[in-house]
Design a protein that fits this description.
Strand content of chain A: 15-25%
Structural class of chain A: alpha+beta
Largest sheet of chain A: 5 strands, mixed
Shape of chain A: globular
Radius of gyration of chain B: 17 Å
CATH topology of chain A: Nonspecific Lipid-transfer Protein, Chain A
Order of helices and strands of chain A: HHHEEEEHHEHH
Strand order of the largest sheet of chain A: 3-2-1-4-5
CATH class of chain A: Alpha Beta
Number of domains of chain B: 1
Number of helices of chain A: 7
Number of strands of chain B: 8
Helix content of chain B: 25-40%
Distance between the termini of chain B: 36 Å
Strand content of chain B: 15-25%
Number of strands of chain A: 5
CATH superfamily of chain A: SCP2 sterol-binding domain
Structural class of chain B: alpha/beta
Largest sheet of chain B: 8 strands, mixed
Oligomer: heterodimer
Mean pLDDT of chain B: 97
Mean pLDDT of chain A: 94
Low-confidence stretches of chain A: none
Helix content of chain A: 25-40%
CATH superfamily of chain B: Alpha/Beta hydrolase fold, catalytic domain
Order of helices and strands of chain B: EEEHHEHEHEHHHEHEHH
Chain lengths: 138, 284
């Protein structure tokens, strides 16, 4: 039997894997991040991805762990929080990355400078799956 | 409509605040009961432009929104030496009272949002008899911090961008895109360190826990309205505050966040119209 939790986890992981392609189709967002080169760890708490960002594009997205791969900051949230965040109208408290950290459904760690200096970029990039997120059994 | 001119007018009034003269910019419309509106931290009076343009409200209220010193078109005072701006409870209270006195307002209603909502509580504690009614939007005696304010003013982070990006999450997802962008535009235009300086009042100096119990709503009615999407001043923060104040009226506003008057003026109107109607009824 496939549990709701597993379905959510799988859908969120699948959605994250699709973010680089969604970003490539959003040139205004790439322009917003054009000064950003960064290694970061993003995604579901237990299944994050190493993201390599160059001039605003995600040029590599690889599931963690990767042996001795470094990152500057990490933003990870529970799969249930991502699933709610990507609804067209998320419930209060699930509608913003920092709302999620305040309520304890997400963790923000490491050197926060690239995250804060490009905050709206990261908010918009990590909201990209909202346009087509669906939870279906794999 | 091309060529339409709005009814509101903007002027400057010279206000003595604690012995120093300030040139304060304000906009107003309508006639009747004075209704003074206080903008949020790091913003300016443009947040209230839809309320000032409301033809129904302006029939019975003289709606006034001013820019705090250092904000919008109210410059810092002439004696400012460039040192770090920090708003305190005492200074904020003095500024509001001095502005009302300079305009010779007769028992105005004061409505403030965010830091404006917090200072409304302080007005209710210490100066209730001067006011006809007090309205706190996104107001609480205290709320838990959710970011480090040192990010707001440092040379390696763009101040306007980070201020706007931080508060962008406080706007409800249902708010119209144009109103969202306009609200954030105000945050992108604040002077360096001004938002951070306002938050000194909010985070450090203006903790009113243990004091709001002194508020006597029989002297001055108190209305508290908070948006359900405000995770800075949450509905729970407002309800906890109101629970300590006998007679305080609380409304939780659906599909609104921390900037109700600017992020979704039509939705906000549904909630503020009955409050202003009640104040009008009690005043006539």
């Amino acid at each position: 039997m496939i549990s709701v939790t597993n379905v959510t986890d799988a859908a969120v992981i699948r959605a994250f894997a699709g973010i680089p392609a969604l970003l490539d189709r959003t040139p205004a967002l790439i322009v917003r991040g054009r000064f950003l080169d960064c290694e970061c760890l993003i995604g579901p708490i237990s299944h994050p991805f190493h993201a390599s960002i160059r001039q605003g594009r995600i040029v590599d997205l690889t599931p963690a762990p990767v042996l001795m791969r470094s990152w500057r900051f990490s933003y990870r949230a529970s799969p249930a929080a991502w699933a709610e965040h990507w609804k067209a109208a998320p419930r209060p408290g699930f509608h913003d990355l920092l709302a999620l950290t305040k309520r304890g459904d997400a963790v923000l760690e490491g050197d926060l400078h690239p995250f804060i200096a490009n905050l709206q970029y990261f908010k918009d990039v990590l909201a990209l799956p909202r346009q087509n997120f669906v939870m279906v059994a794999p | 409509m091309n060529g339409a001119i709005e009814a509101l007018v903007g002027r400057y009034v010279h206000v003595d605040i604690d012995g120093e003269m300030h040139r304060i910019y304000f906009e107003e419309s309508g006639a009747g009961i004075p209704l003074v509106c206080l903008h949020t931290a790091g913003a300016d009076n443009r947040q209230w432009r839809h309320l000032l343009a409301d033809e129904e409200f302006s029939k019975n209220f003289r709606i006034i929104a001013f820019d705090m010193p250092w904000h919008g078109k109210s410059n810092p005072p002439a004696n400012w030496d460039g040192s770090e701006y920090q708003l305190t409870t005492a200074r904020y209270t003095q500024t509001i009272r001095a502005f009302c006195q300079a305009l010779r307002l007769d028992k105005p209603v004061v409505m403030g949002c965010s830091i404006g909502g917090r200072i409304v509580l302080n007005l209710a504690i210490d100066h209730a008899a001067e006011f006809r009614a007090l309205i706190g939007l996104e107001a609480a005696d205290f709320q838990a911090p959710w970011y480090d304010t040192t990010w707001l003013n440092r040379p390696d982070v763009h101040g306007g961008e980070v201020c706007a990006a931080l508060v962008s999450g406080l706007i409800a997802p249902q708010s119209p895109a144009s109103s969202r962008m306009e609200t954030l535009w105000g945050y992108k235009q604040g002077g360096p360190g001004v938002f951070k300086g306002d938050l000194y009042f909010y985070r450090v100096d203006g903790d009113l826990r243990g004091r709001v119990e002194q508020i006597d709503t029989k002297v001055c009615p108190l209305f508290l309205l908070t948006g359900e999407y405000d995770f800075s001043c949450t509905p729970e923060d407002t309800k906890r505050t109101a629970a300590a104040i006998s007679g305080a009226r609380v409304t939780i506003m659906e599909q609104l966040g921390h900037f109700p008057m600017s992020e979704n003026p039509a939705q906000f109107r549904r909630y503020i119209a009955p409050v202003l109607g009640e104040i009008l009824t009690q005043s006539t």
